[in-house]
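Let's practice the habit of predicting before peeking. Look at the sequence and jot down your guess about where helices and strands might fall. Then scroll down.
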Amino acid sequence: MYIYDFIQGLIIGGTLIIAIGPQNLFVIQQGLKKSYVFTVTLFCSLSDSLLIVIGIYLSNYIVQINPSIIGIIKVLGGIWLIFYGLNKVIKLNQIKDINKELNIINEYGKVLITLFLITYANPHVYLDTIILLGSLSTNFNDQFSFGVGAISASFLFFFSLGYMSKFLSKYIYSNKTWFWIDLTIGLLMISYGIYFIIF
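Done guessing? Here is the structure:
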């Protein structure tokens, strides 16, 4: 395993997953009430892992069929990252009212149905995992290590978010905290985007 590629997968995967979206909000709300936390965190982690593997496999399959396309993939991936980062920076001062979004679900069946819908009916999930992470994996020597890093980021993030929601609640509800998180993620994504386009 290439440690460098693993670390890059961990960083990029981690920065893409940290956001106030329906899936992460659902993990937070179930964690706050300690309701089916293991089921929720495991489902989200495994779903991410599946989509990441599909994305990496498809990207490498396309590159094997037409090796010249790798340059196009790198540029498109870089442009996407730059726009992703700029979007984060532009929305830095946007007020986030997480309380309005929280709606605890206590029935196991409803939890699974909700999880499935907010995961697989969300187009951003496919953009971030299959398209973006998949295309970015072609920039690394060992796509396996990159993928393991990205998958590790998903497991670390979701399980930490689910089981530490109570502890993290004072930070989760703070707009100041999200300002710095979004700024860091935005700048990282812009930097990665420029790097992939140039190199």
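How did you do? Residues 24 and 131 are 20 Å apart (CA to CA).
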